[in-house]
Design goal:
Blueprint: E1 3-9, H1 11-18, H2 22-31, H3 50-64, H4 80-93, E2 95-102, H5 106-109, H6 127-137, H7 142-159, H8 172-196, E3 200-204, E4 213-214, E5 217-218, H9 219-223
Antiparallel strand pairs: 1-2, 1-3, 3-4, 4-5
Helix pairs in contact: 3-4, 7-8
Protein backbone atom coordinates (compact mmCIF):
# COMPACT_ATOMS: atom_id res chain seq x y z
CA UNK A 1 0.00 0.00 0.00
CA UNK A 2 1.46 3.40 -0.95
CA UNK A 3 1.93 6.17 1.59
CA UNK A 4 -0.02 9.40 1.43
CA UNK A 5 2.39 12.23 2.25
CA UNK A 6 1.57 15.53 3.95
CA UNK A 7 4.41 18.04 4.20
CA UNK A 8 4.23 21.43 5.89
CA UNK A 9 5.87 23.95 3.55
CA UNK A 10 7.53 27.23 4.56
CA UNK A 11 6.37 29.70 1.88
CA UNK A 12 9.26 32.12 2.42
CA UNK A 13 11.84 29.38 2.00
CA UNK A 14 10.16 28.07 -1.14
CA UNK A 15 9.76 31.54 -2.68
CA UNK A 16 13.41 32.28 -1.94
CA UNK A 17 14.80 29.19 -3.67
CA UNK A 18 12.39 29.55 -6.60
CA UNK A 19 13.73 33.08 -7.15
CA UNK A 20 17.20 31.65 -7.75
CA UNK A 21 18.41 30.66 -11.19
CA UNK A 22 18.41 26.92 -11.80
CA UNK A 23 22.17 27.10 -12.30
CA UNK A 24 22.60 28.61 -8.83
CA UNK A 25 20.36 25.94 -7.31
CA UNK A 26 22.32 23.14 -8.97
CA UNK A 27 25.65 24.67 -7.94
CA UNK A 28 24.45 25.07 -4.36
CA UNK A 29 23.20 21.50 -4.18
CA UNK A 30 26.43 20.14 -5.64
CA UNK A 31 28.54 22.11 -3.16
CA UNK A 32 26.12 21.49 -0.26
CA UNK A 33 26.09 25.25 0.33
CA UNK A 34 22.30 25.70 0.45
CA UNK A 35 21.65 23.66 3.55
CA UNK A 36 21.30 26.74 5.73
CA UNK A 37 18.46 27.94 3.49
CA UNK A 38 16.23 25.10 4.67
CA UNK A 39 13.65 26.22 7.26
CA UNK A 40 14.13 25.23 10.88
CA UNK A 41 12.80 21.76 11.68
CA UNK A 42 9.48 21.95 13.56
CA UNK A 43 9.67 18.68 15.48
CA UNK A 44 7.14 16.94 13.23
CA UNK A 45 7.52 13.20 12.57
CA UNK A 46 10.19 13.53 9.88
CA UNK A 47 11.38 15.24 6.73
CA UNK A 48 13.69 14.26 3.90
CA UNK A 49 17.42 14.50 4.57
CA UNK A 50 19.57 17.21 2.99
CA UNK A 51 21.90 14.74 1.29
CA UNK A 52 19.03 12.73 -0.22
CA UNK A 53 17.39 15.79 -1.76
CA UNK A 54 20.72 17.08 -3.03
CA UNK A 55 21.29 13.75 -4.74
CA UNK A 56 17.80 13.70 -6.26
CA UNK A 57 18.22 17.22 -7.62
CA UNK A 58 21.54 16.30 -9.21
CA UNK A 59 19.87 13.21 -10.69
CA UNK A 60 17.10 15.45 -12.07
CA UNK A 61 19.78 17.51 -13.81
CA UNK A 62 21.24 14.38 -15.41
CA UNK A 63 17.83 13.42 -16.81
CA UNK A 64 16.35 16.76 -17.82
CA UNK A 65 18.51 17.53 -20.83
CA UNK A 66 19.52 21.08 -21.71
CA UNK A 67 18.61 23.93 -19.37
CA UNK A 68 19.46 27.62 -19.29
CA UNK A 69 21.44 28.02 -16.05
CA UNK A 70 20.69 31.74 -15.89
CA UNK A 71 16.89 31.34 -15.86
CA UNK A 72 14.65 30.58 -12.91
CA UNK A 73 12.68 27.33 -13.04
CA UNK A 74 9.47 28.97 -14.25
CA UNK A 75 11.24 30.42 -17.31
CA UNK A 76 12.95 27.19 -18.37
CA UNK A 77 12.00 25.88 -21.81
CA UNK A 78 11.57 22.28 -20.67
CA UNK A 79 8.52 19.97 -20.43
CA UNK A 80 6.07 20.68 -17.63
CA UNK A 81 6.76 17.19 -16.27
CA UNK A 82 10.39 18.13 -15.68
CA UNK A 83 9.49 21.51 -14.22
CA UNK A 84 7.15 19.96 -11.69
CA UNK A 85 9.68 17.28 -10.78
CA UNK A 86 12.15 19.94 -9.67
CA UNK A 87 9.40 22.01 -8.07
CA UNK A 88 8.37 19.01 -5.98
CA UNK A 89 11.95 18.46 -4.83
CA UNK A 90 12.26 22.14 -3.90
CA UNK A 91 9.01 21.91 -1.95
CA UNK A 92 10.51 19.03 0.02
CA UNK A 93 13.62 21.18 0.53
CA UNK A 94 11.37 23.87 2.04
CA UNK A 95 9.54 21.45 4.33
CA UNK A 96 9.13 22.13 8.04
CA UNK A 97 8.33 18.46 8.56
CA UNK A 98 6.19 15.76 6.99
CA UNK A 99 3.78 12.98 7.94
CA UNK A 100 3.22 9.85 5.88
CA UNK A 101 0.89 6.92 6.30
CA UNK A 102 -0.57 3.97 4.40
CA UNK A 103 -3.52 5.33 2.47
CA UNK A 104 -5.86 2.58 3.76
CA UNK A 105 -5.30 3.68 7.36
CA UNK A 106 -6.74 7.09 6.56
CA UNK A 107 -10.23 5.62 6.62
CA UNK A 108 -9.64 5.19 10.35
CA UNK A 109 -7.87 8.48 11.03
CA UNK A 110 -9.69 10.91 8.75
CA UNK A 111 -13.06 9.63 7.53
CA UNK A 112 -14.86 9.72 10.94
CA UNK A 113 -14.27 13.50 11.11
CA UNK A 114 -15.81 14.21 7.70
CA UNK A 115 -19.44 15.05 6.99
CA UNK A 116 -19.67 12.47 4.22
CA UNK A 117 -18.04 9.11 3.62
CA UNK A 118 -14.91 8.57 1.55
CA UNK A 119 -15.45 6.42 -1.53
CA UNK A 120 -11.85 5.42 -2.20
CA UNK A 121 -8.27 6.19 -1.25
CA UNK A 122 -8.13 8.59 -4.22
CA UNK A 123 -10.27 11.00 -2.18
CA UNK A 124 -7.34 11.44 0.20
CA UNK A 125 -5.47 13.23 -2.60
CA UNK A 126 -8.08 16.02 -2.64
CA UNK A 127 -7.11 19.19 -0.71
CA UNK A 128 -10.77 19.84 0.13
CA UNK A 129 -10.90 16.62 2.18
CA UNK A 130 -7.92 17.71 4.25
CA UNK A 131 -9.25 21.23 4.66
CA UNK A 132 -12.50 19.85 6.07
CA UNK A 133 -10.55 17.47 8.30
CA UNK A 134 -8.30 20.27 9.57
CA UNK A 135 -11.29 22.42 10.44
CA UNK A 136 -12.93 19.54 12.29
CA UNK A 137 -9.85 19.16 14.51
CA UNK A 138 -10.03 22.79 15.67
CA UNK A 139 -12.50 21.81 18.41
CA UNK A 140 -10.36 18.92 19.71
CA UNK A 141 -7.14 18.63 21.64
CA UNK A 142 -4.43 16.14 20.76
CA UNK A 143 -5.24 13.58 23.46
CA UNK A 144 -8.95 13.59 22.63
CA UNK A 145 -8.30 12.98 18.94
CA UNK A 146 -5.89 10.13 19.62
CA UNK A 147 -8.38 8.56 22.01
CA UNK A 148 -11.18 8.81 19.45
CA UNK A 149 -9.04 7.02 16.85
CA UNK A 150 -8.18 4.19 19.23
CA UNK A 151 -11.80 3.77 20.36
CA UNK A 152 -12.97 3.67 16.74
CA UNK A 153 -10.31 1.10 15.88
CA UNK A 154 -11.36 -1.09 18.82
CA UNK A 155 -15.00 -0.81 17.80
CA UNK A 156 -14.23 -1.84 14.23
CA UNK A 157 -12.32 -4.90 15.44
CA UNK A 158 -15.18 -5.93 17.70
CA UNK A 159 -17.69 -5.50 14.86
CA UNK A 160 -15.60 -7.94 12.84
CA UNK A 161 -15.64 -10.41 15.71
CA UNK A 162 -11.91 -10.01 16.41
CA UNK A 163 -10.53 -10.24 19.91
CA UNK A 164 -9.21 -7.30 21.93
CA UNK A 165 -7.44 -9.60 24.37
CA UNK A 166 -3.65 -9.08 24.11
CA UNK A 167 -3.03 -12.58 25.44
CA UNK A 168 -4.93 -14.00 22.47
CA UNK A 169 -3.39 -11.70 19.87
CA UNK A 170 0.10 -10.32 20.65
CA UNK A 171 -0.23 -7.78 17.82
CA UNK A 172 -2.95 -5.79 19.58
CA UNK A 173 -0.77 -3.62 21.81
CA UNK A 174 1.85 -2.80 19.13
CA UNK A 175 -0.95 -1.96 16.69
CA UNK A 176 -2.65 0.30 19.23
CA UNK A 177 0.63 2.07 19.94
CA UNK A 178 1.16 2.53 16.21
CA UNK A 179 -2.29 4.11 15.82
CA UNK A 180 -1.55 6.42 18.74
CA UNK A 181 1.76 7.49 17.22
CA UNK A 182 0.42 8.05 13.72
CA UNK A 183 -2.76 9.84 14.80
CA UNK A 184 -0.73 12.08 17.11
CA UNK A 185 1.62 13.00 14.28
CA UNK A 186 -1.31 13.72 12.00
CA UNK A 187 -2.89 16.00 14.61
CA UNK A 188 0.41 17.86 15.03
CA UNK A 189 0.87 18.67 11.35
CA UNK A 190 -2.76 19.69 10.92
CA UNK A 191 -2.66 21.90 14.00
CA UNK A 192 0.55 23.64 12.92
CA UNK A 193 -0.90 24.25 9.47
CA UNK A 194 -4.08 25.71 10.96
CA UNK A 195 -2.43 27.92 13.58
CA UNK A 196 0.38 29.17 11.33
CA UNK A 197 -1.67 29.32 8.10
CA UNK A 198 1.07 27.23 6.52
CA UNK A 199 0.28 25.38 3.26
CA UNK A 200 0.43 21.62 3.05
CA UNK A 201 2.08 19.72 0.21
CA UNK A 202 -0.16 16.75 -0.54
CA UNK A 203 0.70 13.70 -2.60
CA UNK A 204 1.42 10.00 -2.56
CA UNK A 205 4.29 7.67 -3.29
CA UNK A 206 4.66 7.00 -7.04
CA UNK A 207 2.32 9.90 -7.91
CA UNK A 208 3.59 11.99 -10.82
CA UNK A 209 4.96 15.33 -9.64
CA UNK A 210 2.51 17.44 -11.65
CA UNK A 211 -0.43 15.91 -9.74
CA UNK A 212 0.77 16.85 -6.26
CA UNK A 213 -0.96 19.79 -4.57
CA UNK A 214 0.50 22.71 -2.65
CA UNK A 215 -2.38 24.18 -0.73
CA UNK A 216 -5.34 24.10 -3.11
CA UNK A 217 -3.31 24.17 -6.34
CA UNK A 218 -1.71 21.42 -8.38
CA UNK A 219 2.02 21.86 -8.94
CA UNK A 220 1.51 22.02 -12.70
CA UNK A 221 -0.77 25.04 -12.19
CA UNK A 222 1.73 26.79 -9.93
CA UNK A 223 4.74 26.44 -12.21
CA UNK A 224 2.66 27.03 -15.34
CA UNK A 225 1.51 30.47 -14.29
Amino acid sequence: MPDVILSLIDPKSLDSILSMSVGSIIDGMEKMSLRETRPGYQGLPSRQFDVDLEGEIMEWLDNVGEINPDFILEKQDIPIEKKTELLLLLCHWSSLGEWRCWDARLFLYVEPSLDSGVRSTESFLMPSVWEEFKNSLSSLDRATFIESVVIDWMSRREDLGETMDPSSDPRILPTMESHQEFSGGLFDIMEKSRLQSTPILLGREYLEARSWHLGQERLESIIGR
